[in-house]
Amino acid sequence: MTFTLYGYERNPRTRVVRIVAAAEGIELNHVEVVPRKNIGKEEYMAKFPLSSGKIPGLEGPVVMLTETLAIVTYLASISNNAKLLGDGSKEQAAQTLALWFLPLIPNFTDPAPYNKSSVDAGKTSSLRLLSTLENTLSTRICLVGDHLTIADIMVTIYVSRGLEWVLDSKWKVEHPNIMRHFEVVANMGPVKEETPNIDAKEESQV
């Protein structure tokens, strides 16, 4: 069964879908859509009219899906070979999908003009969430249960963007539990395959 994924390589949400598909051995065709640059946006919105232009989108033989959580849940549940939904129980699946979604990157398709106060407020909020994550990981290897799940993949991909733009060397030293978790997930086969340039050693550009 082959699916078509609409999005672009550096988009964190698109990356999460690609990783989950790779982990499950699901073949994806890729169509580049970069809404904020109007690349493929018109065609994408015609195909996914309820998306508001937000990526990614997934097209399959019997499905047309938007929203990252919906897409990865569907792909992982086809066979759940990689156990990315946890142990199969409804309780753990709910935890996996809802409890550890960490939105470090704003979820917009047409960015507003730069506003320093808004950026600073967003950074403060994200750092607060990351402090909670650091404390949680002090007693855990995985976020849900004893096996890497979608939750771990999503958090790692969003943290990678933070490392690229906001989180510097000092922050990394002060958050050893997050960095330990990051290294574990970043070295998963499907993650390395789909995001070969993910690297905690890169310095923040801000």
Molecular structure report:
The structure is a single chain. Helix content is 50%, strand content 9%. It is of the alpha+beta class. It has a 4-stranded mixed beta sheet, covered by helices on one side. Helix 1 links the parallel strand 1 and strand 2. Helix 6 packs across helix 8. The termini are far apart.
Helix percent reads 40-55%
State the distance separating the first and last CA atoms.
42 Å
Unreliable runs: 97-109
Counting H and I runs of at least 4 residues, what is the number of helices? 9
Radius of gyration: 17 Å
Strand order of the largest sheet: 2-1-3-4
Largest sheet: 4 strands, mixed
Tally of DSSP β-strands: 4
> Strand pairing plus helix content: what structural class?
alpha+beta
Question: What is the H/E string?
Answer: EHEHEEHHHHHHH
- The mean pLDDT is 83
| Percent in strands | 5-15%
Shape: globular
